[in-house]
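User: Here's a protein and a ligand (adenosine-5'-diphosphate). What would the complex look like?
Assistant: Let me lay out the input and then the predicted complex.
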Amino acid sequence: MHFINTVTATHYIHSMPNSSTYALLVICDDGKEYVFKHAGSQEAGGTNILIAEYLSYLVAQRFNLPIPEYSLIKIGKKFLKTIEDENIYTMLKNSPELCIGSVYIHGTLPFLDAFKIKSRDYKLLLKTIFGFDQYLYNEDRFPENPNLLFIPQKMELIVIDHSLAIWPLLDYEDTLDAPARARREHILYPYVKGSMSYVSGLIKEVYDVTIKYFIDTIPKEWLNEDLNKDFLTEFFKVRRDNINTILKGVKKCKKPTSNTNLSLF
Ligand SMILES: Nc1ncnc2c1ncn2[C@@H]1O[C@H](COP(=O)(O)OP(=O)(O)O)[C@@H](O)[C@H]1O
Ligand SMILES: [Mg+2]
């Protein structure tokens, strides 16, 4: 049992520009276009990025954050035949058959346009996204690459791209209660004013009700020696227990270790 649907990719459209995870735009057998994340590049994180996207999506939904619909996506044989680029073909052959992706939303605008949103809850939303990122140890939302999209027709802001949540903590050899890195450079840092009790309340609620089930349903071919169920269970527990200090960024992050080479797009 998974918390999300499974579809099969049928056609390759193109690779996403500037994607550090080699994301692809594809069509699936439900007729929808997806931004498809695979695990064919070890240097981009391998299956760790799939686990990161899966768990972040489920948590984001429970936080009521606006996020595109995600599906688990199988690499079909027919799909592989539609790929002419040799590098992409090789990467997909090196990936587990089951991957993940988000439904592609056409006509989005950059984050700055979202300031047209005048609703009362907008600032609370920005603060909640910041808290969500801290909880998941996701630093990948910078002004030059916000991973936030604005849908003008709906006057809605959406969050995307959680490939670098959770597992970079292992690469940086940070402790489980470390705040996400580059806190002050996070695009939403300027909105973190006043009480964060709404976010910490959400985090405690979601942990108690669901995290165990989310972890239990991770496709087992994605789990590995480093990112396994025990580690993930402990990660979420320690972060829940220390959420107030994590949100305040009290504890200092360690300096990057020499073998750390994470590109942030
Ligand atoms: N669901 C989506 N709808 C529309 N555009 C998207 C969607 N997901 C990703 N994108 C676009 O594709 C780019 C690359 O996807 P992203 O998930 O950010 O990959 P990466 O991990 O390589 O940065 C994004 O910066 C954004 O412009
Ligand atoms: Mg991105």
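Summary: Residues 6-103 form one domain.
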